[in-house]
Specification:
The chain has 76 residues and is mainly α. It has two helices and no strands. The longest helix has 62 residues. It is rod-shaped.
């Protein structure tokens, strides 16, 4: 009995082991890259967006104070 092409391609376990090893390396690299990207996004949000929201809070407070003073002056 002679070996056919599928038998020749599937002979040996070396390729299956390498694929598993490469998968684990790729999974680890993807996890590290995801962590780095997530950290960069978090820093950008912390540095840029947080002061913007604080500024919006101050603007809302000032507008509310002006509205209350206007309401008190015009109704009493």
């Amino acid at each position: 009995m002679t070996a056919t092409n599928p038998h020749i391609r599937n002979s040996g376990r070396g390729k299956a082991h390498q694929t598993s090893h490469q998968y684990r390396i790729l999974k680890t690299v993807a996890r590290v890259v995801g962590f780095i990207i997530g950290t960069l996004v978090a820093v950008v949000v912390w540095v840029v967006v947080r002061p913007v929201f604080r500024g919006i809070g101050w603007i809302i407070s000032l507008l509310t104070m002006i509205a209350v003073i206007y309401w008190l002056l015009t109704n009493f």
